[in-house]
Design goal:
- The complex is a heterodimer.
- By secondary structure, chain A is mainly alpha-helical.
- Chain A folds into 2 domains: 1-13 and 293-529, Orthogonal Bundle (MetI-like fold); 27-221, MetI-like (MetI-like fold, Orthogonal Bundle), CATH 1.10.3720.
- Helix content of chain A is 79%, strand content 1%.
- Chain A has helices spanning 2-19, 27-69, 75-81, 90-101, 106-115, 126-162, 167-178, 180-196, 199-204, 209-219, 223-249, 269-305, 309-341, 345-354, 362-388, 400-425, 428-436, 441-452, 454-470, 473-478, 486-494, 499-528; strands at residues 70-71, 265-266.
- In chain A, strands 1-2 form a two-stranded parallel sheet.
- In chain A, α4 packs across α12, α6 packs across α7 and α12 (269-305) packs across α22.
- Chain B starts with a helix and ends with a helix.
- In chain B, strands 1, 2, 3, 4, 5, 6, 7, 8, 9 and 10 form a 10-stranded mixed beta sheet that branches.
- Helix content of chain B is 43%, strand content 16%.
- Chain B has helices at 2-16, 34-48, 59-69, 83-91, 101-106, 163-191, 200-209, 219-228, 266-276, 279-287, 302-305, 318-322, 324-333; strands at 25-30, 51-56, 77-80, 95-96, 119-131, 155-156, 214-218, 234-237, 251-260, 292-293.
- Chain B has 2 domains: 22-123 and 253-301, Periplasmic binding protein-like II (D-Maltodextrin-Binding Protein, domain 2, 3-Layer(aba) Sandwich); 125-251 and 313-333, Periplasmic binding protein-like II (D-Maltodextrin-Binding Protein, domain 2).
- Chain B is an alpha/beta fold.
- In chain B, α6 packs parallel to α13.
- The chains are: A mainly alpha, B alpha/beta.
- Chains A and B meet through α2, α9, α10, α13 and α15 of A and α1, α2, β2, α3 and α7 of B.
Chain lengths: 529, 337
């Protein structure tokens, strides 16, 4: 419990810094934003959240059901390949989608010049943003829901059928409701990332709450106003999270059993063909086409841009993401486990607060952490100077410690989601049995739960690893001198609009991110047997 | 698990903590990209033996960082890609005035801070680019004219969130005041052929493809695009050349630098800025990104020179900063996204 509180307190540091901005309210800026900017973008944001929720929900759940429960040609390939979009930053998908589908893109140019056709729906639109975000983020839902279906889907369906329900009824009335906590966990991650997103929104020039936060800061030079808006965003997320949690705690979930492999639904040839087409189309749109475009751009710049330093960039990325993922998984496990030991409302609040960092716009979180760290550092330096004649300008800031803590604050939700829902799936009867056999809390975790959680831990580690690889604002603000990563390279190129040159580091990020995804699927497959 | 983790991190922290360097060192916080500054810093190190350490980030976070670090900041110099942010840094007390005959001589008065806290190092000109198949240069005249009804459905613009458009509008405010400028921006918005683009290149591609006829861009984006696709039907037009008021001349912004208030090595930072403004460094600084040298004695790259000469707007670029907030609010009111 103490540990959980400590973690929550850490996350609350940037939250507190952000909220402290209310000490200085810049009335004219807020009044201006409220009058001319906010009305439209609140609507924009709600539409976006609503659309992405439906998009990732439909894509994630349907694909998870198909690969976990059905048999169709290419299923084994799709099973892991459908996760690959995770490794692709959403802004890359966005840039490629606009490049291909906008007025100036090859498709419209061809239609116009060969057929005189115009009037295709505008990609730079609300629908376009929702489509791209859904394609980029559905793997969160897919991954977590797939695990749920794989372990309980078949039995749920059998039970439903034995009660006389059709397969479709069984899916909608039994399997889907049973998988709800996992689907919700995945959707929560996707929506928090959507709310905090800046890069994709900038490419679409789609104004959301987060773009207004950056407008207040970068264009109107008011960090306090930006922080005040960020506070409102965070409150909104907190309310949504609590609301979701409330409706969930009324249900109790226990595992039903495991292993669906032998009882997959054999689809008719026509349905199997449709399944193949559908999964193939999603994979192509979300991954194959963007990655091909990246590869083509990379080919143009690789001779000029690839130099020996890339090994260092890649090494820094992998090292930071690896250390960050380990730390996040360890802390998330302890936090989730504390919740299992003490499932009361105080603990629930602690968990919710501790995982809020993911909904913060990245740069605001980075500043919220940087300000207190710099203050602490200043104190340490002054003390060091007074007592030991220390001569220098940074102690903590010059280290990776700050960076890793910042990653922990930001990505705890990403690790916590899969682990917590994995823990929920372990029946409490098992705990009782273990306790009756004289196993203590520690033993219960290490000897009983950990082995059962392997897939969830692997999922959490992979998601976090890939997210840290892609992360930009925290890395930029807290990296020590010389610690440039692949994501920093992407920033260097894109900030001056050199998208083609950004393809090289982006592709390197994707490749480095694919490795753990494949590893995870491989290990996952083996641990399921 | 927890103590081990803590110990591991503490160990890491100490191994990675920077050791004091022996050679003279200048530390730069830069919003100008690594690929644009590293060649210069390397050349400076070779020439003087001074080591230049730098960190890149956006201006906002860099300034927040300087502020939070206060007197213990490691940074000696702040380098940005627009005057607005330098003005803001100066407002926040993050810079210090420097006295330098060299900089006074090398940097024209309208491209540096009147209080000598920052100095332009390269010029970024924001001009009109048009489709040569659809527009005759004689149809074009000024930024203001792009608001007239004859451009209805023919204009493409980059988003108003980009600082270059904000400083352009700020310049208009100095001459016309907020009311008239707002009308002009409304005129632009009314003439748009399609929603604003996220970057200049996309806007030019739309002009080339015939989605619209004219747009406003920084010249180096034009140079970059034409280098890649030389056959695009695009050309540069220099606006506002015949005006007699304060809005006369092509709108320019700067990439520039200042010495931080709490610099550990202010003399070293000043020397570096002076060197960057000198004849030998100016070409390297500007040419690498097809920008214009700030030093009038230095001629631009030949690709850039081929676009022809033009009169610059002579309003001090600091107005880009002091009027930026007004410009942004005005563009919000006018519905310029």
């Amino acid at each position: 419990m103490l540990f959980a509180l400590a973690v929550a307190a850490l996350v609350l540091v940037p939250v507190a810094v952000t909220f402290s901005s209310f000490a200085r309210v810049e009335g004219d800026i807020l009044a201006h934003l409220t009058e001319f900017v906010l009305p439209e973008l609140v609507g924009n944001t709600l539409w976006l959240v609503f659309g992405v929720a439906i998009g990732v929900g439909v894509l994630g759940v349907s694909l998870a059901w198909l690969t976990a429960m059905c048999e169709f040609p290419g299923r084994r390939l799709f099973d892991w390949a459908l996760l690959l979009p995770l490794a692709l930053p959403a802004y890359v998908t966005a840039f490629v989608a606009i490049g291909l589908l906008d007025f100036t893109g090859p498709l419209q140019t061809w239609l116009r010049e060969s057929w005189g056709l115009t009037g295709l729906p505008e990609i730079r639109s609300r629908g376009g943003v929702i489509l791209v975000m859904s394609l980029a983020l559905y793997p969160y839902v897919y991954l977590i829901a797939k695990n749920a279906f794989a372990t309980q889907g078949a039995i749920a369906l059998e039970a439903a059928q034995s009660l006389g329900l059709s397969r479709t009824q069984g899916f909608f009335r039994v399997a889907l409701p049973m998988a709800r906590p996992w689907i919700a966990a995945g959707m929560m991650l996707a929506l928090m990332e959507t709310l905090a997103d800046f890069g994709t929104m900038a490419i679409f020039n789609y104004d959301t709450f987060t773009t207004a936060i950056y407008k207040a800061w970068y264009s109107l030079f008011s960090l306090p106003a930006a922080a005040q808006l960020a506070s409102i965003l965070i409150l909104f997320v907190l309310v949504a999270v609590v609301f979701e949690q409330r409706s969930r705690t009324r249900m109790r979930y226990g595992a039903v059993g495991r292993g669906a492999a032998s009882r997959r639904i054999k689809l008719s040839p026509a349905l199997a063909g449709l399944a193949l087409l559908y999964a193939g189309a999603v994979l192509a749109a979300a991954f194959l086409i963007p990655i091909t475009q990246l590869a083509l751009w990379t080919r143009d710049v690789i001779a000029a841009d690839l130099d020996a330093r890339y090994w260092a960039f890649a090494w820094h990325s992998v090292l930071l993401a690896g250390m960050g993922a380990l730390m996040v998984v360890a802390v998330a496990l302890l936090l989730a486990y504390a919740g299992r030991q003490r499932p009361d409302s105080a603990m629930m609040w602690t968990q919710r607060l501790a995982t809020l960092g993911y909904a913060f716009p990245g740069a605001v979180l980075a500043v919220g952490l940087f300000i207190p760290v710099a203050a602490l550092d200043n104190w340490l330096i002054d003390t060091g100077r007074a007592w030991f004649g220390f001569d220098g300008s940074e102690i903590l800031k010059g280290t990776l410690l700050v960076m890793l803590l910042a990653y922990l604050v930001r990505f705890l939700a990403v690790g916590f989601g899969p682990i917590d829902s994995g823990l929920h799936r372990i029946s409490r009867n098992i705990d009782e049995a273990a306790k009756n056999l004289g196993t203590g809390a520690a033993g219960l975790l290490t000897r009983v739960h950990l082995p059962m959680l392997r897939a969830s831990l692997l999922t959490a580690a992979t998601l976090t690893f890939v997210d840290i690889m892609k992360e930009m604002p925290i890395t930029l603000m807290t990296r020590p001198f010389g610690w440039d990563t692949l994501a920093v390279r992407v920033f260097e190129m894109t900030s001056e609009g050199e998208w083609e040159r950004a393809a090289l580091p982006s592709l390197a990020i994707v490749i480095a991110g694919i490795i753990p995804i494949i590893l995870m699927t491989w290990r996952g497959a083996h641990s399921h047997g | 698990m927890k103590p081990t983790l803590t110990r591991l991190l503490a160990a890491l922290a100490f191994t990675v903590a920077a050791l004091p360097a022996l050679a003279e060192e200048v530390v730069v916080y830069s919003a100008r990209n690594e690929q644009l500054i590293k060649p210069l810093f390397d050349a400076y190190s070779r020439e003087t033996g001074v080591l230049v350490k730098f960190i890149t980030d956006k201006e906002g976070p860099l300034m927040a960082r300087l502020k939070a670090e206060g007197k213990n900041t490691p940074a000696d110099m702040l380098l940005t890609v627009d005057a607005g942010n330098l003005w803001q840094a100066s407002e926040e007390g993050l810079l210090r005035p420097i006295r330098s005959q060299t900089l006074q001589a090398n940097v024209p008065a309208h491209l540096r801070d009147p209080d000598n806290e920052w100095f332009g190092l390269s010029v970024r000109a924001r001009t009109i680019v048009y489709n040569t198949a659809k527009v005759k240069p004689a149809e074009l005249s000024t930024y203001e004219d792009l608001a007239s009804p004859k451009w209805k459905g023919r204009l493409c613009l980059r988003t108003s969130k980009k600082v270059y458009n904000q400083s352009l509008v700020a310049m208009m405010i100095t001459e016309y005041g907020e009311g008239k400028t707002e009308d002009m921006v409304r005129g632009w918005v009314g003439n748009l052929a399609t929603a604003p683009f996220p970057d200049d290149t996309k806007a030019m591609e739309a002009v080339a493809a015939g989605q619209c006829d004219v747009t406003l861009v920084n010249t180096y984006y034009f140079g970059r695009l034409m280098e890649k696709s030389p056959n695009l039907p695009l050309a540069i037009f220099w606006p506002n050349q015949n005006l007699k008021n304060k809005a006369a001349g092509v709108h320019v912004n700067i990439s520039g630098a200042g010495v931080t208030r709490h610099a550990k090595n202010p003399a070293g930072a000043q020397k570096l800025i002076e060197w960057l403004s000198s004849d030998k460094a100016q070409n390297l600084f500007a040419d690498v990104n097809l920008e214009y040298p700030v030093n009038p004695k230095v001629s631009p790259d030949k690709t850039v020179a081929a676009w022809g000469g033009f009169k610059q707007n002579l309003i001090n670029v600091k107005e880009a900063g002091s009027l930026q907030t007004k410009a942004v609010k005005l563009m919000d009111r006018a519905g310029y996204k």
